Amino acid sequence: MEVGFIWEVYLVLLLVLAASFALYILLKRANAWFYERRLGEKRLSLPPGDLGLPLIGNMWSFLRAYKSGDPDSFISTFLQRYGRTGVYKAFMFGSPSIMVTLPESCRQVLMDDETFGPGWPKATCDLIGRKSFIGISDEEHRRLRRLTAAPVNGQEALSVYLGYIEDCVKSALEKWAGMETIEFLTELRKLTFKIIMYIFLSSESEHIMEALEKEYTALNYGVRAMAINLPGFAYHKALKSRKNLVAILNSVVKERRQRMMSCPPPAKKDMMDVLMYVEDENGRRLSDDEIIDVLVMYLNAGHESSAHITMWATVLLQKHPELFQKAKAEQEEIVRNRLPTQKGLTLKEIRQMDYLSKVIDETLRLINISLVVFREARKDVNISGYSIPKGWKVLVWFRSVHLDAEIYPNPKEFNPSRWDGYTPKAGTYLPFGAGSRLCPGNDLAKLEISIFLHYFLLNYQLERLNPECPVRYLPHTRPIDNCLARIRKISSPAM
């Protein structure tokens, strides 16, 4: 009787295991069945890949890889299973998606606005704003871009901000050198936020600046998270920060509106003034909601990438003393060639920083501050022999391109000299994107980084307290201690 009972238990267990396995197989096929069957015969020409489990899709494997020490293992699994096709299907951020990982495919998606429109995830649109660049029509995007790019790019604009950035950098470095320890990344974020605040909201107070910068830290953790609005999830916390940001900016906008009613337009306009006074061909001005979403987007993008790349360029140079000395020698030569009456940097001198420019380009390639951008197919299209259905998301995977050993030998090695005499082919170098939606603040970002590194190389050194500190890759690549360090002054400031 005991033997019979044992066999009954075994049988039940086997049935449970069989049922669980059958359910797992059914769930594994559910996304493919739901999204692909409606495509008819077109599904036969979809790229290779796997749409994963319902709702979750491939997000667990993506998050697991990027929270580990090997973020590239996510794309590697597709390469190992399906080969180097460069185009894979997946279910990412709540949508059936096509991931493109090779230069030609990336270039095609980024340059063809007629076929590919913006396709950012729900979390990004909700947090950055649906009336910002990521959510508006192509026509409105072109108009707003023309208006807002001029104050942050081009020689005239950069000349206006150079002196201010220079003063901020020198003051910050002097302050940090007098402190026992600092979170280097945190302090750099405060510095770059101060600069972007000056450009956009020149007259705003220190109190407003600190309040905004604090909320942006939480906002960024939710931008590339799953849109789960429950306590404990990054998106839930980020929504609260978005609400606080909007409230702060709304008070600023209302104050400017009142000033507009009682005062003539200012002679010198910051970006807020530009947005408030601009009119379309029908005389319509931007609403408060539109202005706030554009500000949320620009203030975020305008300080995050600059701070992170400045930190990594500094850390990487300090880690390679021979490269540090080479970069420093170039800056010393620039100072030696300066007229005795000259005080401070000029744009001409910054354009002469050939090796430092390569340092920045190499840091942008290696660190990949934007690991992916999102588009959506506006119609059925063919890429590399595979079909992309209308309405599916298209993820341009910059990180895979920049760390491709066939394009950049020893891709994870920091080697600024790889840029000697090298002009990257179209689609192989995309730190700021490409096409009509190229990051509008790329020139300003490089200017900030160049000015900081100029003064740092001449006068300071970085001593990390935890040089082997693990790295976190989401939302941006950073040491988990935010680069806890000492800044040590080694000479008098260069004039």
From TrEMBL:
This is Ent-kaurenoic acid oxidase 2-like. Keywords: Heme, Iron, Membrane, Metal-binding, Monooxygenase, Oxidoreductase, Transmembrane, Transmembrane helix. PANTHER family: CYTOCHROME P450 26, ENT-KAURENOIC ACID OXIDASE 2. It is found in: Membrane. The chain crosses the membrane at residues 6-27. Heme binds at residue 439. One of its GO terms (cellular component) is endoplasmic reticulum. InterPro entries: Cyt_P450 (IPR001128), Cyt_P450_CS (IPR017972), Cyt_P450_E_grp-I (IPR002401), Cyt_P450_sf (IPR036396). It comes from Nelumbo nucifera. PROSITE patterns: CYTOCHROME_P450 (PS00086). Pathway: Plant hormone biosynthesis; gibberellin biosynthesis; Hormone biosynthesis.
